[in-house]
Sequence to fold (495 residues):
Amino acid sequence: MKLPLTRKVLYSKSQLDVGGSPTDRPDRPRRRRFEATEAHEGRNVRRLRAASSHGAHGDRLGIPDHTQFHLLSFEGPDAYSRIGGLETRVFGLCHALVAAGHDTHLWFVGGPGLPGYEQRDGLHLHRFCQWISQYHPRGVYDGEYNKVPDYAGALPPALLRDFLGPHVAHGGNAVIMAEEWQTADAVLHLDYLLRQTRFRNRVRMFWNANNVFGFEHIDWGRMRKAAHVTTVSRYMRQLMQSLDIEAVVLPNGLSPDVYLQPDRGTVQRMREAFAGRIAITKMARWDPDKNWLGSVRLVAELKRLGHRPLLIARGGREAHGTEVLREMASLGLRVASRFQQNTQNELGYGDGDDIDGLSCALVNAQNVDVLNLTSHVDPDGRRALFRASDVVLANSTREPFGLVGLETMAAGGIACTGYTGEDYAMSGRNAIVLQTDDPAEFVELYLRVRDNPDYEHSMRRAGRLTARQYAWPSVIRTSLAPRLALSPQHHSFRS
Fold:
């Protein structure tokens, strides 16, 4: 079955092109190749839409025809179900598979009041646990211990009866990809049901760990027999090996919108607002693992040395944020908070800062050291901010993968990462990589980049080249497809 394409799932060479020379100065005309205008992006989209009607599904990403995909995840595209990196991973993977012409289904914990099933942009959406969600309105993980057994009990029979069974009965193959501990029991239940049929060898099952949370709830003996265990980085693989769990790495990827270049005028206005200052952006949950306290100390050290830093901080709703703000005050940093609520989504949350409002806030932040953004920053604003900032801190003390650093690279920014799961970061080449908690390490490494424009430009360019390798189609082709043990001539899975 041919599935329709939309703008969300289109990658193009022009979106990923980095052009230029490592020795180009950032202020020379060649830089215009990196700053796509809205009109240029519009031409790209029109050209791609035209191409989609002429066999855009020709590249199946190394996966045979008649392969059906089912992704199991608590998180999904509903506002109720969107929390963070997991939704980004799952939705990006789904849309890349849909764009390649594969029949793809996402089974997730849906928001109350929405249809149990719908087809959106060619992706089949299946919502479960909605009767529980209506009693737990604060999001997908509210009441998760009630949702886990309901998800595990109700989902596998429906999946097998209505979609998986008929597909494999007509000669197709299927891939199950489940995420995190909350889906583990559903995987085991589905494996049990499949073994009662003659189709088990036509279904390849994967269970993926993005972190080690909830591992104590998993029956690892049964999981090893039911599914191939994967994880997102070499760091996570080593952590799991220390727990006697063998896993292979299936890294995160990037969606096509991440490669859209930010509006040139907006980036210029932001840089004008940053004139004479060191603009540092950090966007992460208020979580100790995200190293907010260490980041605040870096800013305080730059201020002590007379460098006039400006930290643009976007945290979350977690309690650790109070401790971080207290640390800012104790170090003498002047903080201004900004909240902008525009429209309401189905949870009653505002869609947040638009790009013009964000630019205005930066202009008015001349007399503060920290601008604390307390509302959501839209994707256009994120890309512009990542590009315009002098450096983006993604310096977690423990990071399974680190999407923010990779998104920064895709936008043409300078990423500063930690030294755990960021397999893509190469110190001094495409990123600044911190290996200690000493603020002096950051100051020394960053100033070395800032004081050499050719070096800075080379690092930005190398970062974009790296990000290009993590487009979801590339990840699927190089990391997932070889694990399926399939070829067009042999449509049978090995158990």
The domain at 59-253+473-484 is CATH 3.40.50.2000 (Rossmann fold). The two ends are 27 Å apart (CA to CA). Residues 1-56, 343-352, 486-495 have pLDDT under 50 and may be disordered. The chain has 17 helices and 15 strands.
